[in-house]
């Protein structure tokens, strides 16, 4: 099993935008490239996976600082029930790992994902061969 940690508040995949002339652009491309390079660095010299895998993703969102200390303490590890949607978070994460951990995301046989509160924002990805 390999664990990858991406620091920072998890951000969902946004839809592509169109210019007035009809050109398509992705305003997240630089952020996704930075995450891709971070994943590739953590992946190291491991070969790209080609066999079925299971991915476990934990999206950790920071607890708002405006909450009382007691409320903050009670919220740790509780579920994050507001936006962003988990499917958009997962899609962006899988897209960023393509080419760094595996050649194509069609080898993913199962996924488990959850959004929780924690002391700081980060994404923890565990990849396990099946």
Give a quick rundown of the structure.
The chain has three helices and six strands. It is of the alpha+beta class and 130 residues long. It has one domain (2-10, 28-129): 60s Ribosomal Protein L30, Chain: A (2-Layer Sandwich).
What is the topological layout?
Elements: E1 2-7, E2 17-18, E3 24-25, H1 29-43, E4 53-62, H2 69-75, H3 86-97, E5 108-118, E6 122-129
Parallel strand pairs: 4-5
Antiparallel strand pairs: 1-6, 2-3, 4-6
Task: Explain what you see.
It is a single chain. This protein has 130 residues and is of the alpha+beta class. The protein has a single domain (2-10, 28-129), classed as 60s Ribosomal Protein L30, Chain: A, CATH 3.30.1330.70. Helices cover 26% and strands 30% of the residues. It is built from 3 helices and 6 strands. It has helices at 29-43, 69-75, 86-97; strands spanning 2-7, 17-18, 24-25, 53-62, 108-118, 122-129. The strands form 2 sheets. A 4-stranded mixed β-sheet has the order 1-6-4-5, covered by helices on one side. Strand 2 (17-18) and strand 3 form a beta hairpin. Helix 1 crosses helix 3 (86-97).
């Amino acid at each position: 099993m390999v664990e990858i940690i991406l620091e920072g508040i998890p951000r969902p995949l946004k839809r592509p935008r169109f210019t007035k002339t009809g050109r398509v652009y992705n305003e997240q491309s630089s952020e996704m490239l930075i995450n891709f390079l971070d994943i590739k660095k953590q992946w190291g010299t491991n070969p790209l996976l080609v066999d079925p895998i299971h991915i476990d993703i934990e999206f950790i969102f920071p607890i708002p600082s405006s909450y009382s200390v007691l409320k903050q303490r009670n919220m740790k590890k509780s579920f994050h029930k507001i936006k962003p949607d988990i499917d958009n978070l997962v899609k962006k994460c899988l897209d960023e790992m393509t080419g760094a951990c595996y050649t194509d995301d069609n080898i993913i046989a199962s996924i488990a994902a959850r959004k929780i509160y924690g002391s700081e924002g980060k994404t923890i990805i565990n990849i396990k061969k099946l």
